[in-house]
Each structure stands twice: as structure tokens, then as C-alpha cells.
Write a structure and sequence with these properties.
single chain, mainly alpha, 73% helix
Length: 117
């Protein structure tokens, strides 16, 4: 039985998951909390759309499912990098103080003291 390509539709959130997943990766370096949030949102949307796809795979285009899976992989990578970056930021702040994070000169001195150990 041949599937009519005209009756297939894209998964509702496949593009959104892909965009959020990709955006979470570069954001983890500068905006930890936002990257963490959009990674989690992308993973939740992925799970919803995956359930839709698995319930009726013939109703959705294969390309949208590929986008969905790629977005999920990016979101997981972004989530892991965000957690690592957040933990490092917390460690650094506990080691040198929260005010060092906002003062470039103090940050430079703190990094130099780490290099001289």
C-alpha cells in the first residue's frame, strides 16, 4: 500500500524543537539559566510530538520526524553543557566570591591566581 504524500503533515513542534535545541548550545556559554530552560522545553515538546508520531507514523512526514530527533539531540547536548557551565559558574563564585563575576579586573586576577597554582 502506497502512502499519499499529500495527506501527510509535519509534526506540530518539529521545527520548534530543532530551533530551541540548536539555540541552547551557544547560549550555554553566556546565559546558563535560559539555555537550561529552553533545553528542557525542547525535550518536553519532543516527547509530546514523539508520542503523536508513534501513535500514527503514516500521518506525518519523515522529514519532520528527522528534524524532531535532531532537535532532541541538540537539546540534550545543550542541557548537558548548560549544567556543566552552571556548575562551573557556581564553583567559581564560591571559590572567589559572587562579586568577582561582575568585576572584570577581579575576574582577571582570579584567573591568574588559578593559573599560578
Amino acid at each position: 500500500m502506497e502512502i499519499d504524500q499529500n495527506t501527510q503533515v509535519k509534526l506540530p513542534n518539529s521545527t520548534t524543537v530543532l530551533v530551541l535545541g540548536i539555540a541552547s548550545i551557544p547560549m550555554c556559554c553566556c546565559i546558563n539559566i535560559a539555555s537550561l530552560a529552553i533545553s528542557i522545553i525542547a525535550i518536553v515538546l519532543y516527547n509530546k510530538d514523539k508520542a503523536l508520531y508513534l501513535a500514527n507514523p503514516q500521518a506525518y512526514t519523515p522529514g519532520s520526524y528527522s528534524n524532531l530527533k535532531a532537535g532532541n539531540v541538540c537539546a540534550i547536548v545543550g542541557l548537558i553543557l548548560s549544567v556543566i557551565s552552571l556548575l562551573f559558574t557556581i564553583w567559581f563564585a564560591l571559590q572567589f566570591g559572587w562579586e568577582v563575576l561582575w568585576d572584570p579586573e577581579a575576574m582577571k586576577e582570579a584567573v591568574e591566581s588559578l593559573q599560578n597554582r
